[in-house]
Amino acid sequence: MKSLQEKLYEAEKLTTPVNILWTLSKDRNSLVRRTVAKNVGAPVSILRNLAKDKEKSVRVTIAKNSNTPTDILSMLLTDKDVDVRQAVAENPNTLPDDLHKLAMDKDMPVRWGVIQNRSTKLDTFMMLARDNDPVIRSSLAESASTPMEVLQVLTTDKISVITKIAQRAIDERRSKLFTKDFL
Q1: CA atoms 80, 92, 162, 130: torsion sign
Q2: Rounded CA gap, 96 and 48, in Å?
C-alpha cells in the first residue's frame, strides 16, 4: 500500500499512466482525488467522473482546471455549491452562453465571478449593470474588463457612489487613450 505522499506524487505527475490516475481518482482521501483533478494531463473521462465527486473541494478543483472541457463546465453550472459555480464563472473556458446563465445566479459570488471572466460578452455585462445588488454594480464599475458602453450605463445608476466610480473609470480610460495618442 502506498503512502499518502506517494499517492499525491503520482496524482500530480503528468507522466502517470492513466490506469494509475483512475485508481487514484477513486481514492478514499479527497486530497488525492483533488490532486488528480488538478492534473492537466488527466484524461477527460477522469475529469468527468471527478466532476460528480461528493466532496465540494474536488468539484471546485475540476471547475478551476484549465483543461476541463466546456461540457463538464456546463454540467457544473447547476452544482448545489456556490463555490463550484463561482469557479465555473471564473474559468476562462466557460462558454459565453453559460456565463450569461451564471450572471443570473442567486448567489452574488457567482455573479462576481462572471464579471472577472474575460470571456463575458457585452449583453451579459449589460444585464449585470442592472443587477439588484449594488456590490455587483460597483464591482462592474471597477473592473478593467467592463466595456465602455456598460460604464456609460452605470453613470446613471441610482447610487451616486457607483456613478462616480463608473465616471472615474471612463475618465481614466479616456486619459490613457489621449496620452497614448500623443506619445
Answers
A1: negative
A2: 21
